[in-house]
Fold each of these.
Amino acid sequence: MAEDEYGDYNEARQRRVKITAWVVIVSLILVGGGATVLALIFG
């Protein structure tokens, strides 16, 4: 594999990890403790 191929693979992987993290965070807020989190954020 060439260096630039690794770069492209790494970018795609980082994007996928970031999307997965956001999905997990949002689902946790929606499913469990959503009211608690909102209360903490908005006082």
Amino acid sequence: MRAILAATLLLAAACTTPPPAGGPPQPKSPAQALAQIACPHRIAEAYAWVNHMPGPGRSAREVHVDVRLVEATDTAVILKSVATTGDTLVLEIRTAPTAPIAGRVAYREPVPNPMYKRVSFFCRGGEIHSLDTIEKVY
């Protein structure tokens, strides 16, 4: 009973306490708070944009997602989920033995038609973060 009470108080505090300066974004719902607790990786900040500028070896339009994790030593990878829909790009963050850059994960793909409106980050089956805007870079 005490464990349930402690978990409830922790969840309530996570949903109502303002984020510390420079800390990870606060959960948008109780379900997201629980998913964050279950995930070994915490997102400090995430950005998504469409690159409209061509470059060497790159198509003219790509969707880029860049994530900085709270722990600079975290080794994780990010994979596109089969749960991706026409409106939402769903990315799964998974622990990996090594990473190209510890503490960061990135994803890119050619721009789909129609373009995504949202990016959702999942870990261990639950949404831990989301982006409701995807910037356009020219």
Amino acid sequence: MAARKPRAARPVDTGLQRLLALAGRGVSPNRMAREVDAIAAEWRRGVEGEDGTDLKEQMDELREQLVAGVAAAEEAMSDVDASDAGAVKQARHMLAALTATRDAAEEALAAA
């Protein structure tokens, strides 16, 4: 029985993993937005000379995932104990980082 070759990760999944790793390290929202720009630039280089349909689909899927992440973070904010200043600060930072990534993805999609 032949061994299966591992499937290559989808670009959107790889991009989301990069963003999650940065978010987990607590980087600034500006840095998160720059990472979205870097991901979009890499994807653009990968489709040079093609019609760009895959790029738009990837950017749209990334944007959709980030929109869902912002919604989840907003919901999580309501569950944070307001008396726990550290938790409130962390939740606000995560929401700001996700909002920045969503906004950058929307801009990148518009430019695609």
